[in-house]
C-alpha cells in the first residue's frame, strides 16, 4: 500500500541549509519513499526553549510503502546520521536535524513510540506555515479542520520568514 505522509524537517546547528537539503535527498533516494512536494525553506524562531539559534524548517509530502513505525525508524536513522542523539533531556534544544511525522494518511495513532497526527502540529507556526503552503486543504483527522483553518486559528506568535 502506498501511503501519503507529511514530514517536517528542521535544523539549527551547523550548515543548516545543506543539512536539510541532504536529509531531503536521503529520503527521496530511498526505494520506499518518493518526495511529491516540498515547501519553501523557512527561517523560524525556536519553539519551547527559545534561548537558542533560529531554525531552518521545511515540510514535504512523500509517498511511501513504509508503515508508520518503519518510517519512524527510517527517519530516526537519518537524524542519527546527521549527529542527532535523542534523549529525554534535550527535547527542545538545538539539533543538527529534526524530522517529525506530521500526518500519515488519515490515521490516528497513539502509542508509546509514535503519535500521529503530531501532538503539537496545530500549535506551531513553524509547522503550519510551510504545511499550509503545500497542503492547505488537507484535513486534520482529529480536529476535522483544514491546515489553512488550523493556521488561521493558531495563537503561536513565533516568527516565520521565507
3D structure, described in words:
By secondary structure, this protein is α+β, with helices and mostly antiparallel strands. It has one domain (3-119): 7,8-Dihydro-6-hydroxymethylpterin-pyrophosphokinase HPPK (Alpha-Beta Plaits, 2-Layer Sandwich), CATH 3.30.70.560. It is built from four helices and eight strands; from the N terminus they run E-H-E-E-E-H-E-E-E-H-H-E. The strands form two sheets. Strands 1, 2, 3, 4, 5 and 8 form a six-stranded antiparallel sheet that branches. A two-stranded antiparallel ribbon has the order 6-7. It is globular and about 40 Å long. The N and C termini lie far apart (35 Å). The relative contact order is 0.22.
Secondary-structure map:
Layout: E1 3-11, H1 16-29, E2 33-38, E3 42-44, E4 55-64, H2 68-81, E5 98-104, E6 109-110, E7 115-116, H3 125-134, H4 147-153, E8 160-161
Antiparallel strand pairs: 1-4, 1-5, 2-4, 3-4, 3-8, 6-7
What is the N-to-C succession of helices and strands?
EHEEEHEEEHHE
Tell me how many strands there are: 8
- Text of the CATH class: Alpha Beta
Tell me the overall shape: globular
Name the CATH homologous superfamily: 7,8-Dihydro-6-hydroxymethylpterin-pyrophosphokinase HPPK
Q: What is the domain total for the residues?
A: 1
First-last Cα distance? 35 Å
Rg is 15 Å
Looking at the overall shape, the CATH architecture is 2-Layer Sandwich
